[in-house]
Amino acid sequence: MNAASASAPLKARDAQPALEDLLPPLTSRNDVDLQLYAFLAIIMRDFVQSWYGKITTDETFVPEILRIIAHCTTALEQRFRKLDLESLLLDEIPELLDKHATARRMASRSAMQPPVDADAREIYHSIFPLPFLSPVPRLGDDGTAVELQRQNEATYRQLLVQAVLAILLPTEDLENPCLTALVEQILSELIIGNVIAGKASQPWLLYEAICISARSLGEQEARTKARLVTGTDQPSPSSSDLDQDTAKSPKWTVQGVFVLIVHLGILFFNAVRFMAGILADSISLPPRTALHLDEEAADCFHDDKRRLLSTDTNLGRAKVPVLSFKLWSCLGNLIELEQRKPWLGGFMSLLQTAAINGPWRIAGLDGPLDRLLSRHIQALFDSSHLSPILRSLRGALFPNNSLGTSTLTPPQSEEELRALRRRAAAAILGLLPASVARVYFGRRLWRLGALFDPSEDVGSSSAAADEQDGDERILDELEGLLDVVGDEYCNKHLMYSALELLLVRLMPELSEKGVVELWEERLG
């Protein structure tokens, strides 16, 4: 009994305190707080403590900064709960991407011919203007225009962060200019300037992201196939060799075509039955137009309706069916569907219109299919997915939790950048079915001779040369599609526009008042 009572204080002393007992909560989820504090620890260590520790040994400065950041994150989380992420991420931001792709192609495919000089960046900036990104930097300038544009961009970032802090922070925090200035620099330079406008706008980094994503999807698909064939995650050599032999010698026969038609009929019947069952279940789902308020929001609504209308980012915005989102037209624009296969684009538009406005309106607003799609989309936006995303992002931005050299190094020349873009195009081609890629980019689905004469040697040297030449042409076409993100200056327009849209949806006050008005309103 005495030994147990003596070991109790030791266990209590050795027990590690919880994170929420040591630091102010940033969000309502502890796993997200852990990842956010890992980010903040790196930033504080390398950008604040590195110089502040040389001035004084005071340890209250960093906790004050964390307290201000905690006020910002908790206020943002409350506004995020009222935000319609579905419409923002699948309708409004794809609309920006669609405009960016159109402007980028118009600028790079100018009708101007030498000796008339037409700078692609100036054309793009005139179509997609952002005042703080002017003057337009040109390759032949002496650097004055580039430096002036960077100064204007930095000034805009500071004004944007000042407006955000004026809305989110309590009055007592705004009255401390030293802390707010430091937090302003962290947000404007390290987060917006370095990550969003810096790394996320680099074409080479976007190409690397495409290669990494394609490789990850390919490995996942290979593991899935291996699990279905062998019951393990490792693909068997015999199955891979069989796939290679099948891919090398696709021979079509009348019997094979008949069996294929039968399989397609069975697949179509099962798909129709599956969709009918899903649509029957989707009738019981709640309507998308219903406004779900928790008890706290309901109390605020009854106490002060005007305050809720000023802070709720969803009220006053009309919802549209999921099939009417700009995401679908944006994807069609990115792959140039109307230019390459106009009949396919028209057919899909006809199906879309029939599903939304046709009989029974199954895909209309709050229709059965609309509710079903919305439910699956909302599942993708679950907050449980945020922690792994932040962990992966931290590993990419700060290898080994430090500002060490990343494994992703930028290309040193235009030739290396073109080679990287070629690899990204090859990665995308590897994800596409060979027959789909050949038909869409203008090649034949199969050799007609092999259909009527199975004895024809499809592995001849001429066929192999034609196959390789066709793949090279497809890669050229894919490179042209990837050129929409091939310029850093143009990509900045897209990144800043998306950031502005997100902040305005979270804080509608930004579109109603200027920075000076917001600060005068808070501080008098």
From TrEMBL:
Instruction: Quote the PROSITE patterns the UniProt record gives.
Output: PXA (PS51207)
Q: Name one GO biological process term.
A: early endosome to late endosome transport
Q: Where in the cell is it found?
A: Cytoplasm
Keyword Translocase part of the UniProt annotation: no
InterPro entries noted in UniProt: Phox_assoc, SortingNexin/PXDomain-PKLike
Q: Where is this region: Disordered?
A: 227-247
Per UniProt, the keywords (alphabetical) are: Cytoplasm
Residue ranges of domain PXA in the record: 29-215
Provide GO CC annotations from the record.
early endosome; late endosome
Q: Name one Pfam family in it.
A: PXA
Gene Ontology molecular function: any one:
phosphatidylinositol binding
Do you know which PANTHER family this protein is assigned to? PX SERINE/THREONINE KINASE PXK, SORTING NEXIN-16
Name of the featured protein: PXA domain-containing protein
